[in-house]
Amino acid sequence: MKKSFFVLATLLAFSCSSDSEDIAGNEENTAPIIANQQFQIAEHAPSETGVGRVIATDANEDELMFILNDSEDFILDEVTGNITVGPNLQLDFESQTTYELSVSVFDGEALADATITINVTDINEFDELSDEQKELVAHFKHLTLFQDNTSPTQDVMRKWQEPMKLFLLGTFDNSARTMVQEVIADYNRLTDTGSFDISLVTNETEANAKLFLGTKASVESVFPAMYEQIRNLNVDGFAVSSFANDTYFSSEIWISNGGQAICRHELGHALGLGHSNLCDGENASVMCSSIRPQNQLLGIEEKVISYFYHEAMPTGLNENLIQDQLSNLILLEDF
After folding, report:
1. Domain Cadherin: where (predicted)?
2. Is residue 117 located within the same domain as residue 138?
């Protein structure tokens, strides 16, 4: 009897241990929980800037893995859930104010999904510029709004939208024609930020702009309306451009000699540039009201022209809109 009882007790102890292991092994896994979440970040934030941390929970206290399901250039740390700005992402409030990311969280067995919304906040871009960049904005406004005291100021900037097709009139020999081609090439190099360019045409009927080389007196027979404006002025060149909806569609340009400086100056006017105020010393701008043969466009003015004819710079902007648009464009280009 004693022997049988001992065996039975041993079997009972073994059975109890086996039942306990079955219960633990059959514990049910529950999926992690993640809710839709929102974050915000300022536009123009640089790469690696922190956006926020995605929060998820798991009743089983399993280790969680975060997964970004979108191609948007944000970085999601799979362990911490931290979101940062990716290396190629330009955050521009004027272009896109919201990003929606599909994020999953995985506990090793089950997935849960959520939408993460990132709101881009607007900033004052001008305040973010360097002193040199602010000088560029100021000179841009000076040239494109004709703010020099030698000419009437414009309320808005105006420029060409279609390419300029230039026809030459007057006494253009091979040397003078080559000079014009060189000036055109320089302007085309600066305006390749958009779709505008200048080309010479051989048929006057194709032209939307005309450049006349000759004496002041001879202007009367070529551009009669222009002559009425300049007949009593002491000038060596002049340009008149017609516009509609703040967009130039034709130009008449006169130069009295075959020098590059006067051609560059008047063609600059035809493109929508006023007189420069950077006129001190030997390196004065070719856009000053009084110029010398050696004068050229200054480096800051080449930048002005590139931004002026940039595809992202619309015509018809007033002074405040120019500052906003140009400051934003500078920061984007500086990315």
Report:
1. 33-140
2. no
Residues 116-170 have pLDDT tens digits of 999 999 999 999 999 999 999 999 999 999 999 998 999 999 999 999 999 999 9
Q: What is the pTM of this model?
A: 0.84
Q: Name the maximum alpha-carbon separation found in the chain.
A: 142
- Residue ranges making up the domain that contains 265: 125-333
154 & 114 share domain: no
Rounded to an integer, what is the distance from CA 216 to the centroid of its chain?
43
Residue 18 lies in a domain: no
Cβ-defined contacts of 74-81 (< 8 Å, 24+): 74/99, 74/101, 74/118, 76/101, 76/103, 80/53, 81/53, 81/54, 81/55, 81/56, 81/105
Residue 326 lies in a domain: yes
CATH number, residue 68: 2.60.40.60
What is d(CA 253, CA 315) in angstroms, rounded to the nearest whole number? 22
The answer to whether the CB of 114 falls within 8 A of the CB of 240 is no
- In 63-130, the DSSP E strands lie at 65-68, 74-76, 82-85, 98-106, 111-121
The residue to which tokens 């079955």 are assigned: 22
Q: Residue 3: pLDDT above 60?
A: no
Check: CB of residue 58 under 8 Å from CB of residue 33: yes
Task: Evaluate the CA torsion angle 270, 271, 277, 278 in order and state its sign.
Answer: negative
On whether both 117 and 131 belong to a single domain, the answer is no
**Structural domain includes residue 76:** yes
Q: Is residue 156 part of a domain?
A: yes
- Number of domains the chain is built from: 2
